[in-house]
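ok, trying the design again with the full structure, not the truncated one.
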């Protein structure tokens, strides 16, 4: 017998909000269900596991190369997320077809009643899918990332391209300069405010190298009465530690589900040493899922400015 579970108005709102957020974060790698090549009405997101992203550190640009990517496909069932889990598929050129079910089964376990789960699934695929496969089928996947990185290194050496990536912050600083930086507030850059139905959204970005920097920036922002009295000041940051690990955190500040979407935006754009704070002044009219779209978009605007080395135009008067 078929599933006669109906989809409630609340479920539809949660689904629409989730899709709005995902399509905003993964603009270039999000494929709408209407464009599903298999005509099965699945949404698709192209995901690169973290181990493969690491090849960028040795100078190989994997953008546009599907060899490292997973095709994460999902379809909403009636009653998602209140009663039923979504339908899932995972494909990849390096992923054996018979092992796809291992990932799908684990992803299904991440769903829980009444909780939109696609973000959690994407996060797990990025952070843990290779490790999980290495434990489940070590003879196939144990060295896959190492082998690909070795291949990338050989390619890098053969092209004799050793130029480092551009970076806003200097890579060589004296210990004295680093100590001085800790005593000062990192420069704050403030984006253009977006208004919708009297609610205003504005993002602030700072280059940070420690949790102390993060707190210094937050304290500096709170010195401005208008920001301190805003309805929400949600934030997310990612800091690359000396050992190569990433220290990352988000805070919703009462806007449930906002901080993790901001953090996903930072991760999707491979941001390091970046803090983004989004201030929202509530205008008295509920926006539903559209509020997440605005939060993600103002975050992306500042991230894009950082990645394109065009932050100076957004230097905030808060620095004075």
């Amino acid at each position: 017998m078929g599933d006669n579970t109906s989809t409630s108005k609340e479920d539809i709102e949660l689904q629409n909000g989730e899709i709005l957020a995902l399509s905003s974060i993964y603009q270039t790698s999000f494929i709408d269900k209407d464009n599903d090549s298999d005509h099965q009405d699945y949404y698709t997101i192209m995901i690169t596991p973290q181990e493969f992203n690491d090849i960028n550190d040795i100078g190989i640009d994997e953008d546009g190369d599907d060899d490292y990517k997973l095709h994460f496909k999902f379809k909403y069932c009636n009653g998602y997320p209140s009663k039923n889990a979504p339908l899932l598929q995972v494909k990849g050129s390096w992923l054996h077809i018979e092992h796809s079910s291992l990932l799908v089964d684990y992803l299904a376990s991440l769903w829980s009643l009444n909780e939109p789960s696609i973000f959690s699934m994407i996060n797990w695929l990025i952070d843990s899918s290779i490790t999980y496969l290495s434990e489940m089928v070590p003879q196939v996947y144990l060295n896959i990332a190492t082998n690909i990185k070795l291949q990338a290194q050989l390619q890098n050496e053969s092209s004799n391209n050793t130029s480092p990536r551009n970076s806003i912050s200097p890579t060589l600083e004296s210990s004295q300069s680093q100590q001085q930086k800790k005593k000062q507030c990192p420069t704050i850059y403030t984006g253009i405010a977006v208004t919708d139905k009297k609610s205003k959204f504005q993002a602030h970005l700072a280059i940070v190298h420690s949790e102390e920097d993060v707190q210094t920036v937050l304290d500096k922002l709170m010195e401005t009465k208008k920001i301190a009295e805003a309805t929400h000041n949600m934030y997310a940051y990612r800091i690359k530690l000396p050992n190569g690990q990433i220290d990352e955190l988000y805070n919703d500040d009462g806007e449930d589900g906002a901080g993790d979407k901001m953090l996903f935006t930072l991760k999707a754009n491979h941001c390091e040493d970046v803090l983004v704070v989004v201030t929202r002044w509530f205008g008295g009219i509920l926006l539903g899922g559209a509020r997440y779209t605005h939060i993600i978009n103002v975050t992306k605007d500042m991230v894009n400015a950082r990645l394109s080395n065009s932050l100076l135009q957004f230097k905030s008067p808060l620095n004075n």
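Keeping the full-length input from now on. The chain has two domains: 9-159, 179-319.
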